[in-house]
Design a protein that fits this description.
It contains eleven helices and twelve strands. It is α/β, with parallel strands linked by helices and 281 residues long. The strands form three sheets. Strands 6-7-8-3-9-10 form a six-stranded mixed β-sheet, sandwiched between helices. Strands 2-1-4-5 form a four-stranded antiparallel β-sheet, with helices on one face. A two-stranded antiparallel sheet has the order 11-12. It binds adenosine-5'-triphosphate. The site of adenosine-5'-triphosphate has 12 residues, from strand 2 and helix 1. InterPro entries: AAA+_ATPase, ABC_transporter-like_ATP-bd, ABC_transporter-like_CS, P-loop_NTPase.
Length: 281
Amino acid sequence: MLQVNNLNVSLDTLILAKNMSFSLQPGKVNVIIGPNGTGKSTLLKTLFGDIQAKSGDISFFDETLHPKQLSHWRKQFGYMPQDIRLDVELSVLEVVLLGQLDALSLRLDDSLIEQALSALETIGLLHLANRSVNKLSGGQCQMILFAQALMRNPKILMLDEPVSALDLHFQHVLLDHLDQQTKQQGWVTLMVLHDLNLAAQYADNLLVLKEGHVVESGHPSDILTPQLVEQVYGVKAEISKDSQGIPFVRTIRQGKQAQPLSAESQQHTSSNSSKGVERAL
Ligand SMILES: Nc1ncnc2c1ncn2[C@@H]1O[C@H](COP(=O)(O)OP(=O)(O)OP(=O)(O)O)[C@@H](O)[C@H]1O
């Protein structure tokens, strides 16, 4: 279990975690949602050891994150950052292989190449293996970085907005594979998403972040309410359940009020139609 206790994180004058505590269980997909700039990426970087907390503890089973033992700590992680640019003269296969940087030497082990090709095949992008990454589309780069994170055989997998550049098909390829592997391999998976409906579909546990606090956490069916959406985003929403009982969030356009009818159409509706009156209301 990944355990965070009384975490305090600041960047310059910004306080991004205030005595934050939570625990993440193996075999569960944990999804962080929250407003822009609230500190979601900062939290992932802190868990990875890129940003040092002011105080608090982060531990994974019996190991505690210590700034002097970062390399051992990070070996347990697959981490897919928000930035998906791949501006290097490397092939797709080479970039995926970099996920196993520690195991690489001058002579490439066949099993590593097979593992990288298999990661690409799993996500349906084997045909790109020999392409240069700096000629890929944004969505293709994002999928390649996902394959690279899988190559690490992680115990903890963190993904920062992993579907931001993906079309509907690849959103589901990535998230279905993530969900299946998290459960099969017992990974602790933690990802940031902005799309509340994808979060509701894929999260076993939702962590709602705002102003340095986890304001709510739990299964989406239990915690996603119009009140929560308005409290966190300042947006009104209706939430229904789909045929599988998964919450479906539909936001209501702000300032979209019925326009007053012209005198001509008012006459028309009052004399001829009650439907028109309903529409005007
Ligand atoms: N290195 C830094 N130094 C100072 N401030 C930073 C640094 N990195 C990020 N910030 C600030 O910290 C705040 C939180 O940033 P972060 O990227 O963690 O937010 P986020 O919740 O992931 O946002 P988004 O949803 O927009 O990606 C922002 O106000 C950002 O400007």
